[in-house]
Amino acid sequence: MLILTCPYCGVKAEETELQPGGEAHLKRVGPAGSDDEFEDYMFARKNAKGVHFERWRHAYGCGKWFLAARDTATLQVYGTYSAQTPHPPARIVAAIRDVHPDWQPDWTETAGADAE
Amino acid sequence: MVATSFDGVIMPTAPRSGRYSVFAIAREALRQHTGWQRAWASPQPRDRYKVVIVGAGGHGLATAYYLGKNFGITDVAIIEKGWLGGGNTGRNTTIIRSNYLQDPSAAIYDKALKLYENLSQDLNYNVMFSPRGLIMLAQTEHEVRGYKRTVYANNLQGVSTEWVDPQRLKELVPIINLDGPRYPVLGGLYQERGGTARHDAVAWGYARACSDMGMHIIQNCEVTGVETEGGQVRAVNTSKGRIGCDKLAMVVAGHSSQLAEMAGFRLPIESVALQALVSEPIKPCMDVVVMANTVHGYLSQSDKGEMVIGGGTDGFNNFTQRGSWHHVEETVRALVETFPMISRLKMLRQWGGIVDMTGDRSPILSTTPVGGIYVNCGWGTGGFKAIPGSGWAMAELVANGRPGPLAEEFGLNRFREGRFIDESVAAGVAH
User: Fold this and answer.
1) What pTM did the predictor assign?
2) CB contact under 8 A, B317 and A47
3) What residue segments make up the domains of chain A, in order of their start?
4) Fold exhibited by the domain A3-27+35-108
5) Which residues of A touch B269 (CB under 8 A)?
6) Size of interface A-B (CB pairs under 8 A)
């Protein structure tokens, strides 16, 4: 069974305690966006086979949304982190690179990610 | 002849597997069964084909078959990463029905059901189609209303289904417990023409027919890249070398996103694990298929006597073809209340398959941003029942370059245009 540690309350939660919420870090497209951008935001998904960042809610715990880095091909969990981050923090990237040394992030670094 | 058709030997011509008949059995009985041919050849790929189909599961093979049969296109290769029918075709619970709520779904699934009815004769291969009847249990008031609505919709679509009350249901399924405290059975949606077929035989039958038409089925051949030029497909790179093609059909279910990425586009698909389990064989006790969507379980008895149980999907993306224990527990716990006699059965096997889920739980049969590339995916948890209809519609799409009446509502543009074919309420749990 999948076990994730809630970054807010610190509880090691089993899958049955959690609610999955799909791909993380989607950038919302507002009224100013084009049809293409909105379609992309609304429907297209990376559906990565390998490293995947996703949203989870500690539904039967503190009730908060958090983010997790997980491997969809091996079910390994690289770590969980706060939902108030623009992209995964450095310690998650390091955990991923322990397993996949060549893995490259597809975001540009911004301030505030490691504040968690 | 066919004895030389192992991998590594290029077949000069396709072997004819010979027609199966009572006379063939008699002839072979007289010569110690030494004359049976392999059902399909295993050639090395040529440099180029008119059509390359990726994925030798039911949908890919059916696409190839109807390309040959309906459009006379036999310059076709079907390439497969693993073995033929080793993905979801060999992992589903073999249920066939067409009692869908929305018109486009009813049309394509009922086309599939009609083709299944004559598939054994059509392919000269026994797919063991068994129209034993199928019931979807209503165990909440919402389901009662939902299924009655589906019955009305089906009657308008020309798909015969009926609402059955608990008493009739008990006659159809004597082992059912109608008044479970948590999940009372309030009635059911009954499709008499629904049932099951032998899933492997469907793949094998199509494969044999395709091979007999001269098509190449190439197993253990993984696609590593898609070559495009000026927005048009040119070739696929595979573990067995480059294979040129005019048209490329992607029919790979759970790995559709990965293949689309190679061609440079994204799909509204997420891959999750769906699992099933099967009990030890017991004497015949249930001669219909029963689906209980409230509790995420469905039950039928195989010809071998095993109780075949389908469960729910994981909520998270997963490519491991493994199920989760708690889903098994949840499914079995609920089914035991409705079918108390299965409580002491031992389970023999449990397995998972990776299904490709779309947001509206309807499939995608579509052209793509790349010219000459067509996708057939998104069948999610219910692809097996659709195989012949899916192949029929996909062959039309690939041959003409545009969808026919069965496929046109299932295009990728439906997401952009907000024309969903919403089956998530009617069928999102179990197919």
Assistant:
1) 0.93
2) yes
3) 3-27+35-108
4) Folate-binding fold (3.30.2270)
5) 45, 47
6) 64
pLDDT value of position A114? 64
Structural contact between residues B407 and B400, judged by C-beta atoms closer than 8 angstroms: no
pLDDT, tens digit, 9 for 90 and up, residues B23-56: 999 999 999 999 898 999 999 999 999 999 999 9
Locate the chain B residue with the closest alpha carbon to A72.
B318
Between the alpha carbon of residue B172 and those of residues A20, B43, B164, B191, B293, the distances in Å are: 38, 48, 10, 12, 18
Residue-range domain boundaries for chain B:
130-193+270-356
Q: What is the mean pLDDT of residues B186-212?
A: 97
Q: Which of B164, B160, B149 is nearest to B191 (CA)?
A: B160
The string of DSSP letters for B176-201 reads --TT-SSS---EEEEETT-EE--HHH
Class of B130-193+270-356 per CATH? alpha beta
- More confident position, B51 or A109: B51
Model ipTM value: 0.92
Phi, psi of B247 (to 5 degrees): -135, 145
Burial of A75 (0-12, 13-18, 19+ CB in 10 A): middle
Closest CA relative to residue B410, chosen from B136, B59, B67: B59
Q: Characterize the bridge pairing of strands B48-54 and B76-79.
A: parallel
- Mutation choice for A interface testing from B316, B333, B364 by most A CBs within 10 A: B316
- Chain A residue at shortest CA distance from B321: A73
Rounded CA separation B388/B206 (Å): 10
* pLDDT tens digits, one per residue of A30-40: 899 999 999 99
